[in-house]
Amino acid sequence: MTTAGLVVPPAHPVHAKPLPKWRWLPQFFANPFTIYAEESFQALYGQADALGVKTLSINDPIGIDHVMRSHMTNYVRPVVQSRLFRPVMGIGLFLAEGEVWRRQRRMLAPLFTPAAVSDLTPHFQSAGDMMLNRLSGSTRAQFTDVFHRTTLDAVLKALFSLPADESRAGMTVMARTYLEGAGRPTVLDAIAKTETQFGWAFGARKRFRSGWTKMVDDVIATRKAHGGDQAHARGDLLDLLLKARDPQTGEAPSSDEIRDQCGTLLAAGFETTSRLLFWATYLLALDPAEQDRIRAEIQAFPVTNITRMDDLAHWPRLRNALLETLRLYPPVAYVVRKAINDDVIAGHAITAGTEVWISPYILHRHRKYWENPTAFMPDRFAGIASPWTSMDTFLPFGAGPRICIGAGFAMVEAQIVLASLLSKYRISLEDNKPVLPTFRLATVPDRDPYFKIERL
Ligand code: HEM
Description:
Elements: E1 2-3, E2 6-7, H1 21-30, E3 45-50, E4 53-58, H2 61-70, E5 75-76, H3 79-89, H4 98-108, H5 114-118, H6 121-135, E6 140-142, H7 143-160, H8 166-180, H9 187-191, H10 203-226, H11 237-243, H12 255-286, H13 288-300, H14 316-328, E7 335-339, E8 343-345, E9 348-350, E10 355-358, H15 360-363, H16 387-390, H17 407-424, E11 425-429, E12 437-439, E13 443-445, E14 450-455
Parallel strand pairs: 4-10
Antiparallel strand pairs: 1-2, 3-4, 5-7, 6-14, 7-10, 8-9, 11-14, 12-13
Helix pairs in contact: 3-10, 6-7, 6-17, 7-12, 8-10, 10-12, 12-14, 12-17
């Protein structure tokens, strides 16, 4: 929709008044994005009690800083997250807490420095080329699958120097089936007091865990047999992981931990980035003029010219469009913590066990922080370096010491893949029906539209 020259993508209606609990609770499980009232995008704090769990929603940078930085030791991932993510991520970084988390983060940090990510650019270019080969000869595409395969190619190459062959492409199917099925939160997850409670009802998660673990073990075995990345001095991420030592203690990760770090990086690395690419493509199909402007900057500095991360500075509009996509459709729409002890957050007293909800989806559309919050306006990020760390109301990658370790990886990958696509195709939508965001552990489209892809 275009309003007074602004491109405003379709959105769920915002209720004039908060919904009564009997309506919002079931709707929350179906799709939380449908429950919000105007007040949700105006308030700084909101307290609620759902299924016996006290919650505090925070849209205030001071409160966010308290939970994510200054008092972070009082806040841990709630049980529901371990229940949903453990089958995929095991004992890897995402679910680790306390001293174990600190040790793992120290060990993984060198894999994601700007220099290490810069070295991965050829992998992202090759994933982009493989995507173009797959699209070759087509005049239409459904981008959910296209981007899933492409981001899986990118992360498999970066981690293991392996492309996604047919068996590994099964990973996307497995991950998607999990997100759509066994990995969806249920009421039992919401009321469970421990990670294993009501285990009888979740046999599908155990089966997924053993299939996924086997798949990751197989990929590591294939990679070891194949000999790794001879072409790059640093090797791939698995090389770095195998050599990783805790800089403070000299300790090496166990083989289970290496397997689960690979599972964590694979899962965290392809689902989120593929959703970012989907929504960016959708927004640029709604805004063909911006799409043309971005294409012009890519034509002036073609994808093949990119040899290091700094070269991406030639594509400022593309970067801003991706940032604006992360604002409107943050792939991780909720960052949740549970308080270990009673606390006071910027004057709001909470008791131990309270869940603190920080929602990039709400924060990024908050009426107090953004001009025309529902419009697609990439220029709002012009000239702002790393806004995901420099702006306290823009948190697509989380905040504080637990900020996404793969943020730089994702941004470089997304720029190269989207540039590859736009340099060869003009993209538009086949129909005018709205595509709306739905939450399935990530922000996904409610349908998988066909796009027209016109070869340039
Ligand atoms: C657009 C893409 C991505 C988005 C939007 C995203 C978002 C996030 C967010 C919001 C968090 C913090 C969650 C919390 O504090 O509860 C996070 C953590 C994490 N992300 Fe990402 N991520 C993306 C891509 C990646 C990639 C490419 C990787 C790895 C290759 C990755 C690996 C991780 C890991 C391991 C953590 C846990 C960090 C820790 O707890 O110390 N992510 N991500």
